[in-house]
């Protein structure tokens, strides 16, 4: 990989306080596996935490779109749009051109051009803002591009535990926004929604959050709303099969998806009242990991591989047969793996007083039929954690590779 390919993993620090000399800023951002990445440069005065957080910038251009390998941010928005009646390929291309220009400006920390900026994020730096775009299956028929429809974008199978709301599922166009400042993230969401104009109408929109950078004394994997360390077994950049699992190869088909990925999006409500009634030991049995540090029940640290063959004194497996870590292990799924980059969400309280809260699950893979689908089928057949979750929305999107200089996202599809 080139230096440019690594930039989303280590956002560059930019200064708004000095225009002369060598200026940098130190920043922390929660990583793709829940860790943290520091970006620092020499400067003659130490930055404040706010300046550090706001100063980190992620490039818009690159081999892959930003928001896949970028260190995970504290605030996120997901939105799906459908093209308006009468809109086709020409209008979609114009929209992606506008959206890409807006994303580039805002990710640079600039005001939206043409006097269109609302001022929502005035005074803030880019704050590791990323904007990622994808296409749903229906987009290809709407734009007359069915000959470019990837086979990997086949509808996901139905799973017995699903209780999906069709109004909050699927979509022709998808936008993922992440930032370490809530106003910066909302500013991007609002700008893109305004730019959609009469071309595309919002289908659904969801808001999420993660732990803020610097909230812990040292880099740690994030926790979900069950209090569990979430992301311990993610594939990691640098592993020999990482790119093959996550990204479409340069020689892949269709050609416009080279260096792209497929995103499975699921809104998973957690039955937190039921979960909180379980003892610590019961919770750890369900997951197969210690709650305190994420280490497998078979010992070691969070990064230790679970010993699925280890037995307790009475001969029973230390990690139960239906424990989540066993059911999802690549070793029990023919090597199937995906890069999970979720956000937590909380949408208030239901009529029964239970929190409407859980996980905005986002999984990246080169092929959902080899990544998400076999793992979810296994979960569907017998995962102890499924008794405490409800899958309420689902979508699958083709996310093309990153744009080159002067390109907009999707240009190779829409103008190829």
UniProtKB/TrEMBL annotation:
Pfam families for the chain: Dyp_perox_C (PF20628), Dyp_perox_N (PF04261)
Cellular compartment(s): Cell envelope
Domain Dyp-type peroxidase C-terminal: 222-402
Domain (Dyp-type peroxidase N-terminal) ranges: 65-210
Catalytic activity: heme b + 2 H(+) = protoporphyrin IX + Fe(2+)
Sequence segments annotated as region (Disordered): 286-314
Claim: Signal is one of the keywords in the record: yes
EC code: 1.11.1.-
Cellular component GO terms, alphabetical: cell envelope; cytosol
Role this protein plays: Involved in the recovery of exogenous heme iron. Extracts iron from heme while preserving the protoporphyrin ring intact.
Family membership noted in the UniProt record: Belongs to the DyP-type peroxidase family.
UniProt-recorded name of the protein: Deferrochelatase
Organism per entry: Streptomyces daliensis
GN (gene name): efeB
